[in-house]
User: Fold this.
Amino acid sequence: MLKRWWNQLIAIGIDGQTPAPETRQIVFMNAVVLLVLVLVVQNLGLGLAYRAPPLLTLVFVAHGLFIGVVLLWNKLKLYLLARVWWAVFATIFLSAYQVLMGTDSRWDVFLVVCVFVQCLTFPASVVPVEGSRGGHDARQRAEGLRGVSVLSTPGFAGRIGCPMH
Assistant:
């Protein structure tokens, strides 16, 4: 039963016309949002149990509401807005946690993770090239670059110490 709920929630915003690459991005974003919401509920419960300051409790509630709105944006098929919304508010609330709870709380680790998740949230394959200078030529260049990542560029992976080169 829990698995069925999970599958329904991560599929919010997906229908029969959603392209496969976009579907992967939406499922990933929804899963991350749901995991963050679980973390927020945990923070709220612990904050109430240990009588955290009211400001911190308010931040927990606001975090849950602002991150939960990503599911609404995906449901309304506003996928880019959902990604940008998540990127902005995840960073803001993780920074607020760090400021309000102090450096001993170790929320800075999640800020680093947030940067990597944003790289997965905004892959080069979904960056639009329409309207860029060059019009048709820009689209052809983008088509030629599909499937090419920075890490597959000869020499680059070795320079950054990546074992995948």
Summary: Helices lie at 2-10, 20-49, 54-75, 79-101, 108-121, 136-145, 156-159. The radius of gyration is 19 Å. Confidence is low (pLDDT under 50) at residues 148-165.
